[in-house]
Amino acid sequence: IYANATDPGVFRVFSPVKKNLRVQWYGIPEKYLKKTRQVLGDYVFCHSCGTRLEYAGIYIAHIGVWRCDTCGNYPKKYFVYEDNDLSQLKHLPDYTVINSEPVYLLSKDVGIDSSITFESIVCSAPAFGRGEAVLSQNNNTYHIYLGKNPAGWTLALENILERKSELKVLILGLNNRIPDGHDISWIWDVHIDISKLNRLGSNIFIVGDRAYDMAVRLKTEGIENVSILETAEEGIQKANNSYSDCEIAVLANYSSMLEIRKIITGKAIN
After folding, report:
1. Mean pLDDT along residues 222-246
2. How far apart are CA 266 and CA 270, in angstroms?
3. What is the pTM of this model?
């Protein structure tokens, strides 16, 4: 079993497994940890004694370096990539890097040379809707991200703003159709880094059935200079008419992401 020890809920499930089963624990590298919680989590209290968990560092929600100061419950040892490994993976989103740790451990256990596995991880490309790069008209490159909840939007937005130094336009898509869920109040739990978002100036386009709700959410953070487009087609058209040979990021929930992706690529799903 390969399990994330820095998720206390996962730790609770797999820590009492029978001794004839081996659990390989992995966790969050220190460079990805923050001092304060940005998004509320699902797991708050120690599963052994009920005391509120303490954190030395938070990745997102309830995931991080946790411990219970009352009963001493915490993961004693787990694998994380070393700094040298992380430097080679810096072009990948941090959540992809973390998800590759159990793959790395598994490859070692089945006898695959670690260097081969690591080379494969380094060369990996983002999957459908997970930051995949798509070339569109005017040689603009669209990076498409799916965000389904506050944690997903927070992490995707962080990675977009930190890693895309050449980013010219950010398109946010928000629908409230059946695949998304009709309640979009969760957007108020998304953490927004105002300073990083402000560097885009007026190049934030909002599309979707609930575009105005997203605009109000940004306005409460002091970000008002945005373009609200009636349709996703108008958002893509405006981006392509305004820029060429540049980086454009799309962050949208499920039905909106599929809609935008179909406009860019000609098909919603591969």
Report:
1. 92
2. 10
3. 0.87
